Model the fold of this input.
Amino acid sequence: VYKRQDIYVELRYATERNFTHTKVYDFDEAYLRRGTTLKLKKVQEELKEIGFSLKIWDAYRPFTAQQYFWELIHDDEFVADPTNGPKTHNFGNVVDVTLVKSDGSEIDMPTEFDDFTSQASRDYSWLSGDPLKHVLLLEETMEKYGFIGYEGEWWHYTCLLYTSPSPRDGL
Done:
């Protein structure tokens, strides 16, 4: 885990702490499109004022990683089918994020990253207390700055500025 511009980064696929239980990426930097990065900075500025921070779990994803994930899980609710070509993670305009305290300590959220169950969805009817408050704060703040959440994963947000591949811009 490292911190850049007050945003924590823990690329799970650069570690064994992911659903594959293997290190998938040969890099640990969060690469995103510039416009996506600028919007994330605005989200972070607002969250910082109330004692929270973003933590990035995934950003730009190499297409070879997408193909590998599909080999392991043929479920297009959680993994995009690479036979349909590159998707938004491959373009650097999607970010998988969670909330943490400003000091980086974990807080209660609906599920862990890469939870392939219905509890990972944005149907929060089963949630209450702090996990519900936290996920709604994340969702509201991300949407305020132009991110759209994916219905199947509470942590997955798309910046709709881009729809084509990009050079890798570091966060």
